[in-house]
Amino acid sequence: MSADSCIPPSPFFSVIIPAYNCAGFLREALQSLRQQTCKDFEVLIADSHSTDGTASVAKEFPDLACTVFSIDIIGNIAASRNLAAAHAKAPWLAFLDADDFWLPEKLAMVKEAIAARPEAVLFCHAEHIFQDGQVFATQHYGPRGPELLSGLLFGGNAFSTAATVLRRDIFVRVGGFDENPSMVTAEDYDLWIRACPLGESVFLQDVLGCYRLHGGNSSARLKRHFDATEAVLRKHLLPYRPRHPWAVYRRMFRFTGRCALDMARNRHWFQAFQYAVRALGYAAAMTLSWRPEGRIYPHSPEECERLP
After folding, report:
1. Is 8 within the bounds of a domain?
2. How far apart are CA 210 and CA 30, in angstroms?
3. The pTM is what?
4. Cβ–Cβ < 8 Å for 251, 156
C-alpha cells in the first residue's frame, strides 16, 4: 500500500473514491471537490493498480487533502471503498465514484443538514443524471412507503452511493461494504439495508450532484447487476420467508420480472427467457403461499414474530 497525503488535523468529511483506469473522469471529480464551498474534508482514493495514470491525477490537486492507496483487487469496488474508509479520520463518510461529480455547495448543505438533524445517521440528496455531457433527468431519492427498511426490501433501493453521506461509526458497526463477489455492483444496496435500522435517514430534495450514465448495456453487464441485486434480496429476505412467504415471493417475482423486461428491451433474448422462467417460479410460489394476512409487509425480521 502506498499513500501520498496532506491531511488536515480533524476534517468533518472523509470523501471516499474508488478508482480504476479513469484518469479523465477522476480529474473532473477532483475539480468538483476543489470547487466545494465547504473545505472541511479529506480525500481518500483507492486505486486498483490503474495503468492510465489515474493514481497520479491527485498530484494535480495539491490544494486538496488527498491520500492515494493502492489495492491489488480489481473489479470489487466494495473492497476499494472499505480500504479507503479504514483510513478515514472524519466522523462522516461521503462516497463519490470517480466518474461522478458534485455541485459546489454539496458538502456545505449536507453539513447544515447534519447540524439541523444531529440524530440522523444517513443523508441522501437528489442528483442530475447525465450522459455524453447532457443532463436528461433529475433523480430524487427516498423510501417507497412510510417505513424505510420495508421500502428498501420490498420496494427497492432508495439511495444513490454518490449522493449519500453516512456516519462513520455506523459504517464500522455494520462492517462496511460486503465484499462477497456475488454482490458486486449491489453492495451499496446491501449496506443501506444494514445501516438504516440504526438511526434516522434524511432525504434532501436539493440537487447536489451529477451521476454519469454510461452507454452500452451489454448482457453480461446487466446480468451481473441483476444477479448481485438478487443475491442481496435473498440475503435479507430470508428472515421474513417463514412467516411472510407471500410478501417475499411477490418481491422476487416483481424483481425478476423487471429483469426479464429489461433484458428483452435490450434484445438479450436468452437472458430475458432465463429471468422470465425464474419469475414464473416465484409467481407459482407466491400463489401457493397466499393467505389473507400474508399481504402484511413486516418492517423488520423481529416484527415477523409480532404479526399474525
Report:
1. no
2. 13
3. 0.91
4. no
